[in-house]
Amino acid sequence: MSLWQRSLQQLQLILRLNSLRNFVSLFLVGMFLSVAVAACSGGNQTLENGKPKNVEFTLVSFIVTRDAYKAIIPKFIEKWQQEHNQNVTISQSYGASGSQTRAVIDGLPADVVHLALGLDTERIEKAGLIKPGWQREFPNNGIVSQSVAALVTRAGNPKNINTWADLQKDGIRMVTADPKTSGVARWNFVALWNSAMINNQDEGEATEFVRKIYKNVPALTKDAREATDAFLKQGQGDALINYENEIILAQQKGLKVNYTIPDVNISIDNPIAIVDQNVDKHRNREVVAGFVQYLFSSEAQVEFAKVGFRPVNKEVYQTQEFIKKYPQVKTLAKIQDLGGWDVVQKKFFADGGIFDQIQSRNR
Q: Which of 116, 127, 77 lies closest to 300, judged by CA?
């Protein structure tokens, strides 16, 4: 073999070795990148059935449900992981029902909304984000939590306030939220109006009855939680109207609260609905629907009941613990008895409606 032939063989050997090293190097780099990408994109992992390992969605609700969800959400996440082998992350947003509604319509990417009143859910429906018929997707026409209006007074009740009618007396200072911003406050207004109608007053008399009561409100708060804080923590006012659940929760947090549930009352129904446009976009309908369905279970309803909501699950409501905690109201009206939310909104809370007329006269 000539010198140039040996040189050629050595050169070919070097090239093969280099190629092998390059191949190994590229393989190792590839492996590294694969591991790195996998580590950085945990949300893209999939299960054997092709479903994502990690799923997430956003819950938007009114402020007073927050304590219930503190207990409910961890239980649902654990249950879903055990049954579906998926890790669930739930982003949460709480605030006044009306404000939350506007935020969702303006682009807050809610996948599920639990609001203070059906009117707010219907507004999101009218914006095209929720499909018509959402009330029939889940049990109890989508009503997942309930309460009634409570009348709270100072210790010893020094102003002798025992009924809705007592709130119109001269010298009484009442605390409640603004019906223009708070769903709870609309329920309060409707409870007062309903009590007047039950007592056989005509609409003129009922308007005057409610006007006198709102004349005794020095300033309306933004939402129910702010009203509770103003009365219980800041010592404002002689009486407070708020959700029964909000008052029970305040007691559980160590505040001394003197309250009654008036015999004539309104069933405060809080609906839940899937925001169809967003879940279709986020491709998370299965877990969102599973979450909503779970909220009607005995396990979740017990948690709602613990923080003051009246259970919508009859099995839970009929337990001795909750029958005693939530005695039945003698005369309990539904919003449908007043014509439904479309009628109530237009009549009382639309610009120029009865509430605006009352406020104008009281200025």
A: 77
Q: Tell me the DSSP string of 166-231.
A: GGGSTT--EE-B-TTT-HHHHHHHHHHHHHHHHTT--HHHHHHHHHHHHHT-S--BSSHHHHHIII
- Phi and psi angles of residue 322, each rounded to the nearest 5 degrees, phi first: -90, -25
**Phi and psi for 92 in degrees, rounded to 5?**
-130, 145
Distinct helix (H) and strand (E) counts, the chain: 15, 11
The whole-angstrom distance between residue 61's C-alpha and the CA centroid of its chain comes to: 2
Q: List Cα–Cα distances, 8 to 19, 132, 237, in angstroms.
A: 16, 80, 101
- Number of Cβ within a 10 Å radius of residue 189: 25
Report how far apart, in Å, the C-alpha atoms of 80 and of each of 101, 145, 286, 294 are: 28, 22, 11, 10
What is d(CA 149, CA 165) in angstroms, rounded to the nearest whole number? Answer: 14
Q: How far is CA 342 from CA 118, 149, 196, 305, 336, in A?
A: 9, 21, 21, 29, 10
Q: What angle do CA 117, 120, 122 make, to 5 degrees?
A: 110
Residue 135 burial (CB < 10 Å; 0-12/13-18/19+)? middle
Query: What is the Cα 159 distance to its own chain's centre?
Result: 35
pLDDT for 231-278, tens place per residue? 988 999 999 998 898 889 888 888 888 999 999 999 999 999 999 999
C-alpha span between 211 and 140 (Å, rounded): 34
The residue among 269, 270, 279 whose CA lies nearest residue 112 is: 279
* Segment 44-61, tens digit of pLDDT: 688 888 899 999 999 999
Cβ burial of 72 (10 Å; 0-12, 13-18, 19+) is: buried
The structure's pTM equals: 0.79
- Contact yes or no for 195/262 (Cβ under 8 A): yes
What is the rounded distance in angstroms from the CA atom of residue 51 to the CA atom of residue 64?
34
Residue 336 DSSP label: G
Contact 113, 121 (CB under 8 A): yes
C-alpha to C-alpha distances, 272 to 23, 68, 148, 261, 294, nearest whole angstrom: 58, 14, 18, 25, 12
